[in-house]
Amino acid sequence: MKTRDKIIHASLELFNEHGERNITTNHIAAHMDISPGNLYYHFRNKEDIIRSIFDMYESHLASGFKPYEGEKITLELLMGYFDAIFYTMWQFRFMYANLADILSRDEQLKQRYLKAQQQVLQHSSHILRQLNQEGFLAIESGKEVELADTIKMLVSFWISYKLTQSSIASISKASLYEGLLRVLMIFRAYSTPESRPTFDRLEQHYLAQAS
User: How far apart are CA 197 and CA 187, in angstroms?
Assistant: First the structure.
């Protein structure tokens, strides 16, 4: 792995473990046992590193939430989407924990974030529309975008909600699975008699993961 990529991955690890606000470029350099000058050769500042981490975030969103085309709806297909939600929340949890502050410091990053989120909304709305048309969900016609946006809102702010509404100091995987189960609860509310057993199995799977 090239030094630049090592810096990105080390920064992501430190941000997730200690919080982005508590980590400086000097901390990152020390963690990697390189000089600050070596780090600055690759990145101008911490915001530059965060933008590179955001490249990874954008790439995952683009690949993890593509509408399915010509595929049969299976437990594995749905689990792929729920796993993608969990991976996004866990892998980039520092960003979700401090999202407003990070975006307020970097207008360029904010515009990229808004564009990425709009794409997620389009893709997830399309997925809901497909599930609705195939009788797997029962959503009022024309309400797919609003439902997708509600789910996106829950995912985007679940981490900050947990950190402010409980005594925990950091986010665990169990906490994120709890959020994922809340998303699944929304899906169950729109399930049909035919799809409910599939959502029951999904719930049992993620309850086991949470424990």
Answer: 12
Q: How far apart are CA 165 and CA 143, in angstroms?
A: 30
Name, in order, each residue with C-beta under 8 angstroms of 124's C-beta and a sequence gap of 6 or more: 65, 148, 151, 152
* Listed residue (7, 1, 2) closest to 34, CA to CA: 7
Length of the chain: 211
Residue 50, Cβ density class (10 Å: 0-12 exposed, 13-18 middle, ≥19 buried): buried
Q: What is the sign of the dihedral through the CA atoms of 161, 164, 166 and 168?
A: positive
The interaxial angle of helices 75-91 and 196-210, nearest 10 deg, is 40
Which amino acid would we find at residue 60?
Answer: H
List the pLDDT tens digit at each of the 211 positions of the chain: 899 999 999 999 999 999 999 999 999 999 999 999 999 999 999 999 999 999 999 999 999 999 998 889 999 999 999 999 999 999 999 999 999 999 999 999 999 999 999 999 999 999 999 999 999 999 998 999 999 999 999 999 999 999 999 888 889 999 999 999 999 999 999 999 999 999 999 999 999 999 8
CA atoms within 13 A on the CB side of 52: 17
Smallest CA-to-CA distance from 93 within 20, 4, 10 is with 20
